[in-house]
Amino acid sequence: MSRQRSRDTSTELAVRRELHRLGLRYRVHRRPLSGVRREADVVFGPAKVAVFVDGCFWHGCPVHGTWPKRNGPFWRNKIEQNQARDGDTDRRLESAGWLSVRVWEHEHPVDAAGRIATIVAARRRPHRGSLPTTVGVVD
User: Fold this and answer.
1) Is the pLDDT of residue 83 over 60?
2) Which InterPro entries does this UniProt record tie to the protein (predicted)?
3) Superfamily of domain covering 10-124
């Protein structure tokens, strides 16, 4: 397990490259909430969006996740703990006004980045009744 990459995986890098290509700027491997020792893979601070790129095996993907036969109880416990921690992280972020976005490693990076870009753009839109961001010049 110690040899498994926990950051900068090929899927994560591909998603980040695509987000950058779409013109989005972000922080990498940051803790969205102080006091919570969990890092998001990609963080959009002003929009309060935290993106997690989850491995199909490690996080129990409903499509590709498998339960190993060798040392089965250990692995089932490990994966279920990961899922419980993911749920707890999502709840903590939501209660603090953040949106947690989960991307599975089997998702195509272009599709995942498009979904993330749409979410970030929607959360960046000014609310009704707010002041305009630019002021026009009157002749």
Assistant:
1) yes
2) DNA_mismatch_endonuc_vsr, Restrct_endonuc-II-like
3) VSR Endonuclease (3.40.960.10)
Kindly list the domain boundaries of the chain, sorted by start residue. Answer: 10-124
Cα(137)–Cα(139) distance, rounded to whole angstroms? Answer: 7
Q: What is the pLDDT of residue 139?
A: 43
Interval 11-55: pLDDT, tens: 999 999 999 999 999 999 999 999 888 999 999 999 999 999 999
